[in-house]
Amino acid sequence: MIGDLVKGLATTVRYMFRKPITVQYPDVKRPVRERFKGRHELKRFENGMERCIGCSLCSAACPADAILVVPAENDPATPNSPGERYAATYEINMLRCIFCGYCEDACPTNAIVLEHQYELSFYDRRTSIYTKDMLLVPEDQGHGEIPPVLEQVHRRPSPPAQMDL
Amino acid sequence: MTTLSIPSPRDIIGPAERGETENMVLNMGPHHPSTHGVLRLVVELDGETVVDVAPDIGFLHTGIEKTMESKTYQKALVMTDRMDYLAPLSNNLSYVLAVEKLLECEIPVRAQTARVLLTELTRIGSHLVWLGTHALDLAAMSVFLYAFREREQILDIFELVSGARMMTSYFRVGGLAYDLPADFIPTVKQFIDTFEPRVDEYEDLLTNNPLWLERTVDVGKISTADAIAFGLTGPALRATGIAYDLRKMTPYTGYETYDFDVPIGQNGDIYDRYLVRIAEMRQSLGIVRQAYDRLIEMGPGPYQTADRKVAPPPKSEITHSMESLIHHFKLWTEGFKPPRGDAYICIESPRGMMGTYVVSDGGPRPYRVHFRAPSFVNLQALPHMARGRFMADLVALIASLDPVLGEVDR
Fold first, then answer.
1. How far is B177 from chain A (nearest CA, A)?
2. CB pairs under 8 A between A and B
3. Does a structural domain hold residue B171?
4. Prediction pTM value
5. Which helix (H) or strand (E) holds B386?
6. Tag placement on chain B: N or C end, fewer CB within 10 Å?
7. What is the rounded CA–CA span in Å between residue B247 and residue B254?
């Protein structure tokens, strides 16, 4: 009887002298996996044009009805996107979003991508609605950075989880 | 002549002074750490002894079944993750199998093998949460820490394949959401190699621990006949000595080709439920190993049905094939339309028989979806088990039934 208690105690004592596997968030952040679904980004083509063509397929695919797209005709002189139309308004309600990734699966141009940023917080409901300015990447960034999972091929290996198991 | 009525001493002093006691009605929950969710128990107590318990459920009711009626079949899938949030992939599997039965579509072997592997990992992960919280309720804290360490590995695998740790939505109608990633195999290998000794560790801490035995052996016993009458399924039923496992009785997803045993108990008490679940973790690990070997053996292959009316075409195809583009748009806006009819599929979730009943009226949205939630059915046996036991045993009993309130209330 005592022996069985000691056996259990020995297990815990053994672990006392090992390095803890927990990480001190937020000082240390565990890298997320390649496919991690975090904050959305609206991508661009290499020539700086918006990938989004305002087809509203993301909005149709969204199970939580979190996306609002209002399309508009492109001005032929200064087009926003290579197609005929672009998204004049693109809003995602981050309080409704469930990060299922259906929007990026549905997007025919790989314009919307769930990226790895996961620290999302808001002080009020108004700021929880992410507008197109917030979602669209700057013109010199985000070209062709489409996660391989959306193309169903693999380009980069995932970083290993920061765990010493 | 009038008589002066003199009150007798029995009327003046209260029942407590007379040595009699009244039963006390105590509210346990809905915000109580030991109820494992928002479960309210109205407990009638005679001193420390439980006279009766009335579980009051519904605090987490979100109308999942009703909401699903307004979504297309593929979109309704994400709701199933949120029922039994400790075993999301089991729910996914139950739902997609029911819809696939309606559609009569063929699933590639690779997808089926991946489904088996991941549902068994889900079972282990769910049992780890049960083990950790159960032990924590009975004041064994270190088990909780170790169990969650292993669960982290499982959640990491889920994040690797689906991008989400808990709300995975990885099984889609027609196969898998995406193909298994390249580093899936080494990550699962790492888990398979490290997990078995970890289970021994939990057993070192609990199985023969006299304190653990004192709290669990012969507590909350239920006879086989009663368990069947209450409709108990899963480990709670198997602990009474019946090898009722849907993976063996009505195999699905190719479970008949896997070699595993169904662990059973004898007494139907908390300790036997503990032993059954621990043994199940080892059996599940065995199934994971077999599925892992098969995945390596079969190599890359299709992970979705070839039926383009069900599964959307690969993204790379829609840029140059008009037909693929039309399928893509049709599937994501309108969805597929199963023929009129209904389908019922039940699978062995970590908690028991998880059934999904889907009725189709021929439209793109389910006419009705109903879930036979194991937690809901198992929970009704709680009063039967708790009567006559101590209040402290009630905590152990809830943990041993392992209800997930998201699934109870739906």
1. 9
2. 110
3. yes
4. 0.87
5. helix B382-386
6. N
7. 9
Q: Which of B403, B406, B387 is nearest to B34 (CA)?
A: B403
pLDDT confidence of B182, banded at 50, 70, 90?
A: confident
A89-92: long-range pairs with CB below 8 Å, 24+: A89/A131, A89/A132, A90/A42, A90/A52, A90/A131, A90/A132, A90/A135, A90/A136, A91/A67, A91/A129, A91/A130, A91/A131, A91/A132, A92/A40, A92/A66, A92/A67, A92/A68, A92/A129, A92/A130, A92/A135
Distance CA B131, CA B134 (A): 5
pLDDT digits (tens, 9 = 90+) for B268-291: 889 999 999 999 999 999 999 999
Rounded to a whole number of angstroms, the distance from the CA of A25 to the nearest CA of chain B is 15
- Domain boundaries, position B390: 56-408
Domain chopping of chain A, boundaries: 33-154
Which long-range contacts (C-beta less than 8 Å, at least 24 apart) are formed by A105-108?
Answer: A105/A61, A105/A150, A105/B177, A105/B312, A105/B332, A106/A57, A106/A58, A106/A60, A106/A61, A106/B328, A106/B332, A107/A57, A107/A58, A108/A53, A108/A55, A108/A57, A108/B315, A108/B318, A108/B325, A108/B328, A108/B329
Contact A21 B149 (CB under 8 A): yes
Which residue in the set A12, A99, A149 is minimally distant from B164, CB to CB?
A99
Q: Domain count of chain B?
A: 1
B331 domain-assigned: yes
First to last CA, chain A: 31
How high is the ipTM of this complex? 0.82
Residues of A with CB below 8 A from B178's CB?
Answer: 35, 149, 152
Please tell us whether the domain made up of A33-154 is placed in CATH 3.90.1150.30.
no
